[in-house]
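Hi again,

Forgot to attach this to my earlier email, sorry! This is the prediction with pyridoxal-5'-phosphate bound. I've pasted everything inline since the attachment limit keeps bouncing my files.
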Amino acid sequence: MIPLNQHPSGRHFLQIPGPSPVPDRILRAISLPTIDHRGPEFGVLGRKVVAGLQQVFQTRHPVAIYPASGTGAWEAALVNTMSPGDAVLMVETGHFAALWQKMAVRLGLEPEFLALPGTCAETGLPNAWRHGVPAALIEARLRKDTAHRIQAVCVVHNETSTGVTSDIAAVRRAIDAARHPALLMVDTISGLASADFRHDAWGVDVTVSGSQKGLMLPPGISFNALSPKALARGRTARLPRAYWAWDEIVEMSAGGYWPYTPNTNLLYGLSEALDMILDQGLPAVFARHQRWAGAVRAAVQAWGLPVQCADPAVYSPVLTGVITPRGVDADAVRKLVHARFDLSLGTGLGKLKGRMFRIGHLGDCNDLTLMATLAGVEMGLKLSGVPLAGSGVARAMEVFAETPAA
Ligand code: PLP
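Structure tokens for the complex follow:
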């Protein structure tokens, strides 16, 4: 452990899947003097960030902004739409899906936790934690719910604990095919502004997201993008809510203000982040993440280690989970890499503790920061005695050289 007063030379490599590195441009914006959150300049800022977020969520409908981490926005999604004892269908895709399910229990809901059955023979890990949401299972479950007790289907778009994405349009089709009125609520806390996400086109009712991943901001702001159906449900839902209530936030933020003190300086940062992302254009942002992910996966495959996501159709563009051989504590590798090379990797969470680590490749990265990251991981694996089939660093260099950035 490095004492805080002995900062190592050079930049720390923050390659966890969020918080992601904050660009200097955003840090400078955040450092501007705080202004009156009821004054005229603030309204301009507030309206700008809401309009920019609508573009990033790909929605024409309201986006509520909370001065809270992503967990707060999870809670907002549930308390604004549900009544005590409501049944919700949630899908186990990893640690974050499990935490949202636990929250639903604490709020007095009755979540049913659907999961792909079985374990993977090669790794001994649950199949549900290596694949995306099984839309066919959702459809089958909803068809059985002829009394329409289930009030919402809740899924995670980019499961940060595994590096697996889910096909949200397919979940919408499953709900429609079953002719079921349940709301579709989606967590894209780590997917937004890195992986393609379309709130309106995919028929999502509530999208939950946060600041510290693809938006390249520090933690501390989170969002609910809403549909007209979700807003209507909000008027009849009976779970208690005050701070999270959509009605006042949506009404006031249309004019650029909030019912309470917003985190002004993070909103400066958000304004700057939106300029960066929208100036580049969403298609280019998504392509950049896909290209990085391809190079990182090529490195992992060259090492001869399994990628946590077992389905190539849903590899995450945001992070890659690397499974270590049985008997090798992935957390010990991660700690060694941090101690020796000042590089932070994501830990294995929940059922994956000690079995895998995660490499974040999101936000303010480039080819060379990722090459350095892969070099740190390769050295760490070798120092930990992991037998490698080949050099991932050499393979990633080839991929980057062969596929120039657009
Ligand atoms: N959902 C997902 C997919 C996440 O990745 C995270 C955090 O990493 C959360 C929810 C919880 O968000 P927070 O830690 O900002 O409260």
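Residues 18, 69-71, 96, 156, 160, 187, 189-190, 210, 219 surround pyridoxal-5'-phosphate (CB under 6 Å). The chain has two domains: 13-21+281-402, 25-279.

That should be everything now.

G.
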